[in-house]
Amino acid sequence: MPELPEVETIKKELGKSVVGKKITEVCVHHPLVIRQPSVVKFKKDLVGATIKNVLRRAKLLILELSNGKYLAIHLKMTGQLVYPGDGKKSRVTFHLSDGKNLDFNDQRLFGELRLIDNWQSLKFIRELGPEPFDLNPERFKEMLSNKKTKIKPLLMDQKFISGIGNLYAAESLFRARIHPGRPAQSLSDKEKGLLFKEVKDVLKEAIHYGGSSVDNYVRLSGEKGNYVSHHKVYDREGKPCVKCKTTIKRIALGGRGTYLCPKCQT
DNA sequence: AATGGGACCTGCGCGC
DNA sequence: TGCGCGCAGGTCCCAT
């Protein structure tokens, strides 16, 4: 499940591999993932365009094209971008001027590709909360101050703060020793400051290791990200807490599974 | 305003 | 072995 670190990893790798290359052909094997515009127009407007730059906002990848348009890619749950791709699982294949393919794979078809004139005007983009790395501790504390919501669903709320999903919310809260069900406004000043630090630290570390390949996520090369072995709680139900040996629990919060150490996190 | 549930999808792992 | 079912969780949408 790609979150900020996974998308950032792919963004950096795309910058090295495909920027400067021209799209020579687009094969749409599954039209469901093309959300905007029509498949015909999507292909027509992409062919001949050169990829000028790659941007990331929250979990959205944005390819800036030489024709002034932008290709926005959301991987959702099971999306993958692979270069050079073999086309085997591809939903959409972009043939590039170097003779290689950029494959968009997506087992569950939740992913979304949009070719747009102005990415800033997308509803999804306009409603996003700030990037974690654009915030300072004081601002983060202010944001939490009048929120009654449980802290974990709040961290995952893209309109509140963008880029954090189920995995990094759970890891941040473990590191800050905060129970995921706590009302946000109940956190002490010290806890808020610590949580902000841990959010940034865990995201940075995960980016360093190329993200977490828990499920379908792979790097642009098709290799797995290496951060899973550093997880303290996520996907570790029944295993001992790395700090106190207490058995890691999995509970439901806001309709999502979440992992915690019942002793360390209060 | 905030919360909960279902929808979108597929494939995996589980119990029988 | 095989079948049906629950489940994974990013985002949107609707109901309360």
In short:
The protein has about 270 residues and is an alpha+beta fold. It has seven helices and eleven strands. Strands 2-9-5-4-3 form a five-stranded mixed β-sheet, with helices on one face. A four-stranded antiparallel β-sheet has the order 1-7-8-6, covered by helices on one side. The chain has a two-stranded antiparallel ribbon with strand order 10-11.
Describe this entry's structure for a reader.
- The two termini are 27 Å apart.
- The protein has helices at residues 4-17, 39-46, 123-126, 137-145, 151-156, 166-175, 189-208; strands spanning 23-28, 34-36, 51-57, 60-65, 70-74, 79-82, 90-96, 101-106, 112-116, 249-253, 256-260.
- It is of the alpha+beta class.
- It has two domains: 4-126, MutM-like, N-terminal (N-terminal domain of MutM-like DNA repair proteins, Alpha-Beta Barrel); 132-260, Helicase, Ruva Protein, domain 3.
- It binds a DNA duplex (16 and 16 nucleotides) through loops.
Q: Helical segment tally?
A: 7
CATH C-level of the largest domain: Mainly Alpha
How many strand elements?
11
Any idea what the shape is?
elongated
User: What structural class is derived from the secondary structure elements?
Assistant: alpha+beta
Produce the secondary structure layout:
Blueprint: H1 4-17, E1 23-28, E2 34-36, H2 39-46, E3 51-57, E4 60-65, E5 70-74, E6 79-82, E7 90-96, E8 101-106, E9 112-116, H3 123-126, H4 137-145, H5 151-156, H6 166-175, H7 189-208, E10 249-253, E11 256-260
Parallel strand pairs: 2-9
Antiparallel strand pairs: 1-7, 3-4, 4-5, 5-9, 6-8, 7-8, 10-11
Helix pairs in contact: 1-7, 4-7, 6-7
The structure holds a DNA duplex (16 and 16 nucleotides).
